[in-house]
Write a structure and sequence with these properties.
- There is one protein chain.
- With 218 residues, the protein is α/β, with parallel strands linked by helices.
- The chain has a single domain, classed as 3-Layer(aba) Sandwich (Rossmann fold).
- The protein has four helices and eight strands; from the N terminus they run E-H-E-E-E-E-H-E-H-E-H-E.
- A six-stranded parallel beta sheet has the order 5-2-1-6-7-8. A two-stranded antiparallel ribbon has the order 3-4.
- Strand 7, helix 4 and strand 8 form a beta-alpha-beta unit.
- The radius of gyration is 16 Å and the shape is globular.
- It starts with 9 loop residues before the first strand and ends in a 7-residue tail after the last strand.
């Protein structure tokens, strides 16, 4: 494969690069902090433009296990919009854990999409809330900018990155996930395997490509 050379119709999407998802955070992803230098390398070289997302939950959010007596983190419950995994309290609005990581180079980040701020619905995707219909507005902004191809990085591979990639592909974008700029949670599935493998299989079937930072032209 020839080296990838991003153009004006390409954009880097940084998904939830927040301390809350890194070691020491409330919903830590193993190795989560390792994505920051890889992303900074991409921002310093191939990509002149990027957007970012932030999980941004109010206290008592309906996706928190603590909001459901008798339930524990990683239980699943039925919500009006479908199954919902319950999480530890994380990404509380205005907290240091909810900020973009302080070591992240933000100079080329042109837009920040905050998601999960509605108390009764969770939001994984950069494009839609978990009801799959309430839009964040990102699609319209990208189209107004003439963006046709998205490269996604961040946390977590099997949740917010995967849902963002799937929605982007469904909206007609060409989508690439930069694997070494992502880390996943990897919850075990009843049918075997884990959520990372399942997400990769689902995304590959949807036409999403998996690449590495080394695939870009120097």
């Amino acid at each position: 494969m020839p080296p990838i050379r991003p153009t004006d119709t390409d954009m880097l999407g940084l998904i939830d690069v927040q301390p809350t998802f890194m070691p020491g955070g409330a919903l830590a992803v193993t190795g989560g902090e390792e994505v920051v230098p890889v992303i900074n390398h991409l921002l310093a070289g191939p990509f002149a433009q990027a957007f970012a997302t932030q999980d941004w939950h109010p206290p008592g959010h309906s996706s928190f296990a603590s909001s459901h007596p008798g339930r524990a983190p990683f239980d699943s419950i039925a919500m009006p919009y479908g199954p919902q995994t319950l999480w530890p309290e994380h990404a509380i609005q205005g907290s240091a854990e909810a900020a973009l990581h302080p070591a992240l180079d933000q100079r080329r980040i042109e837009l920040i999409i905050r998601k999960g701020f509605r108390p009764v619905i969770d939001s994984y995707s950069a494009f839609f809330e978990n009801d799959r219909t309430t839009a964040t507005g990102l699609d319209g902004w990208l189209r107004a900018r003439g963006i046709r191809r998205l490269f996604l990085a961040g946390l977590a591979t099997d949740y917010c990155v995967a849902f963002s990639a799937e929605d982007a592909a469904g909206l007609g974008y060409e989508v690439c996930v930069i694997e070494d700029a992502c880390r996943g949670i990897g919850l075990s599935l009843p049918e075997g395997g884990d959520t990372i493998a399942a997400a990769k299989a689902r995304l590959t079937a949807a036409g999403v490509r998996f690449i590495s930072a080394a695939d870009f032209a120097a």
